[in-house]
Input
Amino acid sequence: MRGHVLALSGGVGGAKLAAGLAAILAPERLTIAVNTGDDFEHLGLTICPDIDSVTYALAGLNDTERGWGVAGETWQAMAMLRDLGEADWFNLGDRDLGTHLARSWRLRAGESLSDVTSRLTRSLGIGPAVVPMSDAPVRTQVETSEGWLDFQRYFVAEQCRPVAKAIRFDGTPGAVPSPGLAEALARPDLAAIVLCPSNPFLSVDPILAVDGVRAALESRQVPLVAVSPLVGGKSLKGPLGKLLGELGLENSNRAIVDHYRGLIDHLIIDRSDAVDAEGLRAASVSVTVTGTVMHAAEDRERLAREALSAARIELEGHDAR
Amino acid sequence: MRGHVLALSGGVGGAKLAAGLAAILAPERLTIAVNTGDDFEHLGLTICPDIDSVTYALAGLNDTERGWGVAGETWQAMAMLRDLGEADWFNLGDRDLGTHLARSWRLRAGESLSDVTSRLTRSLGIGPAVVPMSDAPVRTQVETSEGWLDFQRYFVAEQCRPVAKAIRFDGTPGAVPSPGLAEALARPDLAAIVLCPSNPFLSVDPILAVDGVRAALESRQVPLVAVSPLVGGKSLKGPLGKLLGELGLENSNRAIVDHYRGLIDHLIIDRSDAVDAEGLRAASVSVTVTGTVMHAAEDRERLAREALSAARIELEGHDAR
Output
């Protein structure tokens, strides 16, 4: 069928699939709702790492070598901040800083995160709607042997070294979906939901924790296809493999499916995890085994096609640009 | 005599003499009080151009080719801001942005401009006290044929093209001197005051407009030596020559002395304006004729020595570093 596609995404990995979807769907057919649990305030700036990853990937500005941030980035402001004795644990690129500045001052002037995100993505020529999961601040916290840590403190400053015991999303319940996410969930022409290959615990769970989102997905009338973030039992980036162990779960797609029980109809897994497939089918989830590592645009678009195909979404000539 | 020296400075030209004074005086003998009338809020940042010019000059970070800002500057954040559709009339260098960010977030966290300035200058290894004229916001406004313009709008966006009719300093009266300026003015060992070669109307008048500063200078017990910002009847940078004409004043040091009547004891003028000297002496101001253009560190230090000599300040071995 045709109709609208809602993608739920975290940062880098999710952003790649989101860019693949954006490359093959007409812009008006796609809404990308992005995790904001990683957002934080730093040096007076509101930094939204996952929105920025998605934005840079869709605008073709992302650094594909380093795997995060903007291509052609420089670090001059950071060097000055260091000379001035300011905190340097979070790397702020100069180009990236332009984004943080534009966002922060507009938020402070009273614009919602949705308004700002729409403005910034449109300025960069991005067609699909990129929306935050919520305009209310949600802040992921990780309980570790060192106590509760702000997500970026855990993720960047501590490089995920402390053992994680629990995760919570400050601000939920009570954070309502952004207008764009609410609208996409309620669209009569909604035809599929795609869970991008993002960390289930740190990137997707915050979206599910937004008021009504989990219930909306549970009562969906359309296919929900997830792309597993595991490749060979680990994530390509980030702490998913380590986290699964710390949370007492096995390093396999069975843990992913168990975590998303009742939420997903189909899981796309990587060839290196093909051994997981049979067990998943036994758990009433249909499975595609394919290559899920996205090195180049072709990989992103092929995987996006496979996800839409699994969701029985038709592409027409003017979609597949 | 020995004792403490208070320098009053605006931006680029003043900053050079301030750096000269800093190079020859023991750090504890010098306070540099800086104009903040040029300060403004931009993209959520509090930008203090004159404090930054003085800071960069004293730290040896200033760009001597371009004549303003930081050496080795890049403009990546600015390019991103432009791509995002944000205002680009004020050039924000990447290294400079580090300073604006550090200052802005600390101000927002409740630190005074004095505290922030002290912290930033100490971090850069600057010995003398660099203090804002006031911790209260003072904002220079220029009345032009286009109405009252914020200073940076007049100076940067309009490049001083509109004809100036009047100048006012919003926030005065009512802005008290910063603790550092008040303390320097009240020091029993205050031995001289130096007016750096800054625009009298736009850079020094705001300092004089701070509550009690003009009165303190008028009742001073110590020599006040000014270095004229005119070279050949014009300023090296900025709109002083144009402004003198628009305000109905002559393009000579006579206008400077008339403007500072009762405030200065001695004026240092450039050789190219030597013809002005006799008239100034007739106005009861003693005069030094010398080279006032400061290309290199030697020029700054020589001119600083001449200013201190005119103020009968002694330098000892450990001063002249």
Q: What stands out?
A: The longest strand of chain A covers residues 164-170.
